[in-house]
């Protein structure tokens, strides 16, 4: 005898299958938040900053998807003591040039003018300046509401993170007059 599923039977079968997945620790929400996706909670990415333009600046930048955006945490070293630096996500995941110009401009998927992240108009990749301590180190965290951990339109994966020589003035278009690029790292799923 041939087995035929009615719409109600198909619905019950799907519900049982989902319940089985939930009981095994796997759910549709955990699949959506796998590394490299833009799901909620646990999607993560990392960039390792390499020295550029003849500096010794390096570090690690981590991104984690959270409600309301992406939590970025960074540990940077090799900066001049007590100095302030522009810090941005750039459009291209290419740090191959000695001056990191291969990373392109600031990541700006919505075509907005450059500005401080608290201003209504700013690039998605615009972040606050970072300030080095007396030993030339930075430890900073900030919530980036315009980004996602993923490869979609606002995704950071496949982009670059750049530390600039000078502070960002948040006015000069389109760069913030932040000077040369002294460290660069490509963002990859982690």
Tell me the number of strands.
Answer: 9
Task: Report helical residue fraction.
Answer: 10-25%
**Radius of gyration (Å):** 21 Å
Mean pLDDT, all residues: 82
The biggest beta sheet reads:
7 strands, antiparallel
H and E order: HHEEEEEEEEE
Low-confidence stretches: 1-40
CATH architecture classification of the largest domain: Sandwich
Our estimate of the beta-strand percent is 25-35%
Question: Which fold name fills CATH's third level, the topology of the largest domain?
Answer: Immunoglobulin-like
CATH class of the largest domain: Mainly Beta
Question: What is the number of independent domains?
Answer: 2
Tally of helical segments: 2
Strand order of the largest sheet: 5-8-9-1-2-3-7
Taken from the alpha-carbon principal axes, the silhouette is: globular
Within CATH, the superfamily of the largest domain carries the name: Superoxide dismutase, copper/zinc binding domain
Category from helices, strands and their pairing: alpha+beta
Distance linking N and C termini: 51 Å
Give a brief outline of the structure.
With 190 residues, this protein is an alpha+beta fold. The protein is 12% helix and 29% strand. It is built from two helices and nine strands; from the N terminus they run ααβββββββββ.
Could you walk me through the main structural features you see in this protein, from its secondary elements to its overall organization?
The chain has 190 residues and is α+β, with helices and mostly antiparallel strands. The chain has 2 domains: 1-32, no CATH class; 44-189, Superoxide dismutase, copper/zinc binding domain (Immunoglobulin-like), CATH 2.60.40. Helix content is 12%, strand content 29%. The protein is built from 2 helices and 9 strands; from the N terminus they run H-H-E-E-E-E-E-E-E-E-E. It has helices at 7-23, 28-32; strands spanning 44-51, 58-66, 69-77, 84-85, 87-90, 130-131, 138-144, 160-164, 181-189. Strands 5-8-9-1-2-3-7 form a 7-stranded antiparallel β-sheet, with no helix packed on it. It has a two-stranded antiparallel ribbon with strand order 4-6. A hairpin with a 6-residue loop joins strand 1 (44-51) and strand 2. The longest helix is centred in the N-terminal third of the chain and has 17 residues, at 7-23. The radius of gyration is 21 Å and the shape is globular. Residues 1-40 have low confidence and may be disordered.
